[in-house]
């Protein structure tokens, strides 16, 4: 696997680049919800509809999370773009023995309260109009192996044009209390209920 290796120059450059990109590409960027988890690391799961999702998280991290960002992405993608590792990306190779190493690595990151780990349990790109989402189950190894306190966070990215030539990016956040048995279907259903609520809120903006 490829581990994250944060580099301050890369983070500064791409942080500025993402802010400029968002101003140019989106009419408005809004964050709905807040996270209050002092002394806890954050495990953030979100929907995966574009290549930019990980970059959007740089904006959210600075705006809301105030944690050191780590993003799990497919190893074939990170191998093609190794500079992403210097911004906090680390790899997972699906259906391989090394996938367990990646999941254990993510869990170890969450043992440090200054860290946050972002992953996309769908395991693939899907339109943000897809609902409900289906999660792969391997990611549950992460919360089961964290030894310290952490907070699970639901995240959703939604975009709409409405009556404007440029779209609006809406970012929704919600703290989530994990069930005691980490039942995968319960978490998937609860995330889909959260996403459905976000879509309803988005429709109210029209």
Give a short synopsis of this structure.
With 206 residues, the chain is an alpha/beta fold.
Describe this structure as you would to a colleague.
The protein is built from six helices and seven strands, in the order αββαβαβαβαββα. It has a seven-stranded mixed β-sheet, with helices on both faces. The model has no long low-confidence stretch (mean pLDDT 91). The radius of gyration is 16 Å and the shape is globular. The chain has a single domain (8-203), classed as Glycerol-3-phosphate (1)-acyltransferase. The N and C termini lie far apart (44 Å). Helix 1 (8-25) packs across helix 2. The longest helix is centred in the C-terminal third of the chain and has 20 residues, at 184-203. With 206 residues, the protein is an alpha/beta fold.
> How many H/I helices?
6
Shape: globular
Could you name the CATH class?
Answer: Alpha Beta
CATH architectural category: 3-Layer(aba) Sandwich
| Spatial gap, N to C terminus | 44 Å
Q: Percent range for helical residues?
A: 25-40%
> How many domains is the backbone divided into?
1
The amount of beta strand, in percent, is: 15-25%
Low-confidence stretches: none
Describe the strand arrangement of the main beta sheet, using strand numbers. 1-7-6-2-5-3-4
In CATH terms, the superfamily is Glycerol-3-phosphate (1)-acyltransferase
Structural class: alpha/beta
Please describe the topology of this protein:
Elements: H1 8-25, E1 28-32, E2 41-46, H2 53-65, E3 68-74, H3 75-80, E4 89-92, H4 98-109, E5 115-119, H5 141-145, E6 150-160, E7 168-176, H6 184-203
Parallel strand pairs: 1-7, 2-5, 2-6, 3-4, 3-5
Antiparallel strand pairs: 6-7
């Amino acid at each position: 696997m490829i581990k994250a290796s944060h580099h301050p120059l890369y983070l500064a450059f791409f942080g500025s680049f993402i802010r400029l990109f968002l101003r140019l590409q989106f009419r408005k960027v809004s964050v709905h919800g807040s996270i209050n988890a002092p002394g806890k690391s954050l495990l953030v799961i979100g929907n995966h509809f574009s290549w930019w999702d990980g970059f959007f998280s740089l904006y959210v991290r600075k705006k809301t999370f105030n944690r050191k960002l780590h993003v799990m992405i497919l190893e074939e993608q990170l191998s093609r773009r190794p500079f992403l590792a210097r911004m906090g990306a680390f790899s997972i190779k699906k259906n391989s023995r090394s996938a367990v190493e990646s999941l254990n690595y993510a869990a170890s990151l969450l043992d440090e309260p200054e860290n946050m780990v972002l992953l996309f349990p769908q395991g693939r790109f899907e339109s943000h109009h897809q609902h409900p989402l289906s999660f792969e189950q391997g990611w549950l190894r992460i919360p089961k192996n964290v030894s310290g306190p952490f907070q699970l966070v639901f995240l959703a990215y939604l975009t709409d044009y409405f009556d404007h030539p440029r779209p609006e990016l809406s970012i929704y956040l919600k703290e989530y209390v994990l069930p005691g048995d980490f039942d995968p279907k319960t978490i998937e259903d609860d995330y889909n209920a959260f996403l459905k609520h976000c879509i309803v809120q988005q429709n109210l903006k029209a």
